[in-house]
Description:
This protein is α+β, with helices and mostly antiparallel strands. The protein folds into three domains: 5-163, no CATH class; 171-329, Up-down Bundle (Four Helix Bundle (Hemerythrin (Met), subunit A)), CATH 1.20.120; 339-473. It contains 16 helices and seven strands. The protein has helices spanning 5-8, 30-33, 131-144, 154-163, 183-207, 212-230, 238-265, 267-274, 279-304, 306-321, 324-327, 330-336, 340-356, 367-387, 393-427, 431-464, and strands spanning 15-25, 36-41, 47-50, 66-67, 86-99, 105-115, 118-128. A hairpin with a 2-residue loop joins strand 6 and strand 7 (118-128).
Amino acid sequence: MRTGPLAARRAGRARGSAAEVTWLDTAEDSLAAEGLALEQPRRGTPRLLRTRPEPDGFWRPGAPPAELEDRDSPAATDETEAAALRPVGSFAGRATRLMLADGVEALLLRGQLRAAAQEVPAARLTLAGPRPAVLAAMRDLAEALPLLPPRAALAEEARALARGTPLVARRLGPPRLDPTLDVEGALVLALGHLTEVLLWHAPAAAAGDTPDGVHQMRVAMRRMRSLLRVFRPACEGSALRGFDARLKALAALLGPARDWDVFLGGLGAEVAAALPAEPRIADLLRAARARRQAAYAALRPALEGPALRRIAWDAVALIETRPWRTEAKEAAAERRAEPLEEFAASVLDKRWGRIAEAGETIATLPDAEFHALRIEAKRLRYAAELFAPLWGRKKARRFLDRLAAVQEAFGLANDAVVARALMASLTARGGARLAWAGGVAEGWALARARRARGKAEAAWGDLISADLFWLQD
């Protein structure tokens, strides 16, 4: 506290004290089932906290657990009956309060989480004060310190430690929009949701032990960038463009890692299975695994350094300040005033029109046009997936299933194209052995692409005849 970025912003003396809390729940974990925790400090009144978002409720990434004033929750009716509750876990350590510049107060908790015989270190930094000053302080601190919105509340971490189970993600998959939201409310809810998803998968992506972390991060980022494009007519400005640029830069690092994962788990594995005794294929896969390791090594500093932290706190700032209100033009304000369903239908109409221009058959499309159509189909899918709950998922399911089939077939064709490019880069200076193996893999990729094109044409025919769920009565 006496040196470093936090000390540099000090505007007063630090005050420290012991901090000790215990979290309680019923034997059936009924509070946990509702996303709640009863926090009992060493001295003072217990607090009922919301530690996980309600299924379709808004959640601000980076916000501390909220104390509930309404205690009518069925699971909380016996919260004052000590006999019905049991300790789940506890925290013991030090709480340091420090005034920072511009009226910001910092509270730093450092200590140990304890549950049963387990004990792990834990820390939390909370800033309070004027919103602009708090956001500026957190951004500045995050440039030098590993400060991210926590993936779980301390109570949730203690619960997982006690159970010996992994943490449960607050949010996964696409956001679910409520039809009662307005246009701006839909954007901030979805942005908060996808920020949570992005941060959840980041540790697995940095570790690189499985392909899933990078894959899920890429999906979350694509959904996020699609979200920004979808809402651009209503919410635009330099802050959103800067945020999108940061996403694009991180996506450029995720791409190579994902490409090598797809090759090694797909086409590379197929070739190896077909020629298990061929040493030149083994050499090729060994070289591909080395490239994968290099791609992850290039990615890791971005995920563990300031790049991801900037994205996270930029997202929090966008949600909290909504800068498009002052940056966007008058026409955008008019779009924000539209009913959400009307806004969504206009977006889906526009995106459907772009892909419907290809006609009923795509058999003769040149590769470049096929690739462009694949991108447009992907953008339509993200938008349709986002807005489908406004009309009911059952109404949209048939359309989304057909669109998913198109995207999967298009993706398989594209994977083969990417694999050919990877082989060209891998064998450029690899000698005759790698050149031979790369030629085998490229031939395999070409055959795979042709099969995928055939599947894409069939799936396309099903899609082009589908009912458009946003036009249904």
